[in-house]
Amino acid sequence: MGAGLPQDTRIPRGHHQAGYHWKSAVLSVCTQAGPLPVLWRFGKAPETADLTLARPLVRRAQHTWGRGVIRWLILDAGFVDGPWLRRLKIQGTDTVIRIKEGMDNYEAARRQAEAAPPRAWQAVALPKRRPKERQPLRREVLGLVDQPGWEGLDRPISVCVVGDTYADKVEYWVLICTQPYLSAKAIYDLFRRRWGIEETFMALAARYHGINDLYACRPGLALALIHFTLLTHTLRYLCLLTRAARAGRPRTKYLVVYWAGYYALLHASEVFEQVFDHWPLWEDRREQILEALRYCEGG
Question: Does position 20 have pLDDT exceeding 90, yes or no?
Answer without folding.
Answer: no
